[in-house]
Amino acid sequence: MNALLRKIGLKVPGLPLVLLLCAWSAVGQNAPTLVAGIPVNYDEAKVPAYTLPDPLVLQNGKKVESAQTWHQKRRPEILSLFESEQFGKTPERKKARFPVFEKGTLVFNDKAIRKQITIYFTEDTAHYKADLLLYLPAQAEKPAPVLLQIGFSPNSLAVNDPDIRKGLMWNREGKQVPDSTGRRFGSFDVEKFIVNGIGVATIYYGAIEPDFPQGIKYGIRGHYLKPGTTYPAPDEWGTISAWAWGLSHVMDYLETDQQVDSEKVALYGVSRLGKTVLWAGAQDQRFGMVIASCSGEGGAALSRRQYGETIKHMTDSTRYFYQFSGNRAHYGDAPESSPVDGHMLISLIAPRPLLLLTGDTDNWSDPKGEFAAAVAAGPVYKLLGKKGLETTVWPAAGKPILHDLGYYMHAGGHGTLPADFDIILDFIRMHFMKK
């Protein structure tokens, strides 16, 4: 495996020069050399030699040679390692309630049916809840596939639809404010998917767990924190696990909606929410597809490359330590000592379709490291009768690889660009709408 990975970088097509779309994406005069006082490497020549743990070798040293051994032994081993050493262990889900407060309103010139549902994560109906916004093709003759987005914006800001129920959101100061005062991170083009027979659902991540260090006081993790326990604890769950746990509750609802094909739900998220959808899909195999955009360190990228953002950057006490288990910080100075890496997280999605999206100037997220991780996960897909990337040649921007394991790098920086949704649409149709 590592011999194959060493080939990557020897055959790299020329990449176009583009305008930078994100401050963290730059490599040049304006690129930070220190983040939180920790050096940043943007030089391929300084990437250390590394050896990846083999996802197809059991902890007892025996080779995994069958799908049965993968599913019954090796996959549970890897999942347990990620629970303990990276994301933290989530509590068991109790039977959720999800009242539908809008049962079906025709919208977008009668092309779509809009539903709005409240997901209650506990028996407490005053707290620990989130609204799910769902659009389904109005003319569908059978249950529809659904693209489920976990987003940074409340539902009322995620879609250009004035009749979405308003609510509260968390601001940068850690206060709850009306969502009308929040920032819109673009408007999701629902109709692009609806006219192709695909539903769209979205949920606001901050309604599950606030995204700041003190958020545990207000979110679902605080509700489940055992008396006498303080965070960070060794395998206590971080916010990424909390957001993933919330998404499984959404799936609980989608399985009850007779207009949804719950076996064809594609889970989509960007940046830290790209990490989230990978972890949600790893834990909950009911999700039929995962689409992770710019998931970077802690997601699809290889930590051992120590390129762009690193474990040490993420787990610094001034930054994003709260997104992970306490154990994750142990590997900040020695990523090579971690028993897991990005390729193993990717392998947990197999044999289901997985699409990795990234940008050629998003060096903070290490697009080359995401590609290398996908290459290293390929043998798992092959063992399970599916098709990995089938190449060690890092593609130029704009050149998609769309097999069961897919990779697409746009020309630009961090985040999903409008044109990326054409790739997402092609990938969903390829796997969910075969004739």
Q: What's the shape? A: globular
CATH class group of the largest domain: Alpha Beta
- Proper CATH architecture of the largest domain: 3-Layer(aba) Sandwich
Specify the CATH homologous superfamily of the largest domain. Alpha/Beta hydrolase fold, catalytic domain
Mean pLDDT over the residues: 92
Distance between the termini: 35 Å
Number of helices: 11
Overall domain count: 2
Order of helices and strands: HEEHEEEEHEEHEHHEHEHHEHEEH
Number of strands: 14
Strand content range: 15-25%
> If strands are numbered along the chain, what order do they take across the biggest sheet?
3-4-5-9-6-10-11-12-14-13
| Main sheet characteristics | 10 strands, mixed
* Helical content class: 25-40%
Q: Which residues form runs of ≥5 with pLDDT under 50? A: 2-29
CATH topology of the largest domain: Rossmann fold
User: Which structural class best describes the helix and strand composition?
Assistant: alpha/beta
Write down the Rg.
Answer: 21 Å
Describe the structure.
There is one protein chain. The chain is of the alpha/beta class and 435 residues long. The protein folds into 2 domains: 2-91 and 288-432, Alpha/Beta hydrolase fold, catalytic domain (Rossmann fold), CATH 3.40.50; 100-270, Alpha/Beta hydrolase fold, catalytic domain (Rossmann fold, 3-Layer(aba) Sandwich), CATH 3.40.50. The chain contains 11 helices and 14 strands. The chain has helices at residues 2-7, 67-87, 155-158, 190-194, 220-224, 239-254, 272-283, 311-314, 342-347, 367-383, 420-432, and strands at 34-35, 38-39, 100-107, 112-120, 129-137, 144-151, 168-170, 176-178, 199-204, 260-270, 289-293, 354-359, 401-402, 405-410. It has a 10-stranded mixed sheet with strand order 3-4-5-9-6-10-11-12-14-13, sandwiched between helices. It has a two-stranded antiparallel ribbon with strand order 1-2. Strand 3 (100-107) and strand 4 (112-120) form a beta hairpin. Helix 6 crosses helix 7. It is globular and about 55 Å long. Mean pLDDT is 92; it is low at 2-29. This is Acetylxylan esterase. GO terms for molecular function: carboxylic ester hydrolase activity. Residues 1-28 form the signal peptide.
